[in-house]
Amino acid sequence: FFTCLVILFACEVAAGIWGFVNKDQIAKDVKQFYDQAFQQALMAESETNNGKAVVKTFHETLNCCGPDNVIGAITPLWRKDLCSGDSLVENFIEASNCHKKIDELFSGKLYLIGIAAIVVAVIMIFEMILSMVLCCGIRNSSVY
What is the pLDDT of residue 91? Predict the structure, then answer.
């Protein structure tokens, strides 16, 4: 069990370093994923569409509406089901495009992602310590 935790910890550290080095590429990929989901949501008519659910999650989480193009700019006026908010005018005036919000997330909020990674790393170190203590306790025990 300890060995599995060490391997998992090493993979998480490697993924964290890779993510920090390639944060611009990751932000670009997230924007591309959002654009694909947005196009799928615009073309779909049913409420059970996965693209619509993904787009609504982006809009609610980032408080934005639409991509960084003309269709995204006028979407709040004709697709209220994709954008959250009380009124159409409020959506159009206050909500910014999601590409800008994604860039802000990866540049301005990077410290929050780092803090979360450090917390997970500390928890995993405690897990490794406790699993080794348990292993040594079982090994030294005379009764199985």
Answer: 47
pLDDT digits (tens, 9 = 90+) for 78-113: 456 667 655 445 545 555 678 888 888 777 777 777
Q: How many Cα atoms sit within 13 Å of 55 on the Cβ side?
A: 30
- Nearest CA to 36 out of 55, 63, 64 is that of 55
CATH H-level, domain 1-142: superfamily: Tetraspanin (1.10.1450.10)
Which of 54, 92, 95 lies closest to 74 in space, CA to CA?
92
- Longest Cα pair distance anywhere in the chain, in angstroms? 74
- Closest C-alpha among 69, 67, 68, 93 to residue 82: 67
Per-residue confidence (pLDDT) for residue 47, from 0 to 100: 61
All residues at 6 or more sequence positions from 118 whose CB lies less than 8 Å from its CB, including other chains: none
Q: Note if the pTM is more than 0.70.
A: no
Going by C-alpha positions, the residue among 139, 142, 135, 138 that lies closest to residue 1 is: 135
Q: Which residues pair with 96 in a beta bridge?
A: 64
3-class state of residue 112 by DSSP: helix
Using only C-alpha atoms, what is the Rg of the chain? 22
